[in-house]
Amino acid sequence: MSKAQMELMGMAIVLMLVALAAFFAIRMVITEKPSTAASDYNSIQLATNFLNALLETYVPDCQSSVKELMIGCVNGDSISCTGTLSTKDTCGAANKVVSDISANSLTAWGKTYELKYEGAGPVTLTGINTGCSASSNRKARLFFLPTSKGTLSVRLDICS
After folding, report:
1. Which of 61, 66, 103, 110 is the least buried, fewest Cβ under 10 Å from its Cβ?
2. Residue 153: what are its φ and ψ, rounded to 5°?
3. What contacts 34, CB < 8 A, 6 or more positions away?
4. How far is CA 82 from the centre of its chain?
5. Distance from C-alpha of 92 to C-alpha of 81, rounded to nearest angstrom
6. HSE-up of 85 (CA within 13 Å, CB side)?
7. 3-state secondary structure (DSSP) of residue 142
8. Cα distance between residue 151 and residue 120, in whole Å
9. What is the pLDDT of residues 30-44, one digit of tens each?
10. What is the pLDDT of residues 107-138, one digit of tens each?
11. What are the boundaries of each domain within the chain?
12. CATH code linked to domain 36-159
């Protein structure tokens, strides 16, 4: 074999190695799962944004926000609701609104979560658990609502 043929064979081998390396690099990038840090951040942001939106949601049938309904429930206030929520049971109205909003957002998006309430005396707000277990990886956000009977904590755990 001549010197030129040997150089061409060497170049061909180098090109095949570069192509093989590029193939594996592209395959790794395509099949790479998102980092746990990014996934954790997304879950925390989802919990924060959901609770912010939930608490500030205005309920026209009750002429109050969800936050006001929750505080009214703990305080024992009677907030009259009309329309589909036709009731004077503030706690029942709060539970119904929270349940509906959660079902139409987090549950519809396929998220596993637990929403619970603590503090401020006997809390008659009903928590929601869609399958979070004690061993679930949880990312939580906690909001505090001042009431006349103490502080009500609203906690949302996004589970994976």
Report:
1. 110
2. -105, 135
3. none
4. 30
5. 10
6. 24
7. strand
8. 5
9. 776 666 777 788 888
10. 999 888 999 888 766 667 788 888 888 888 88
11. 1-32, 36-159
12. 3.30.1140
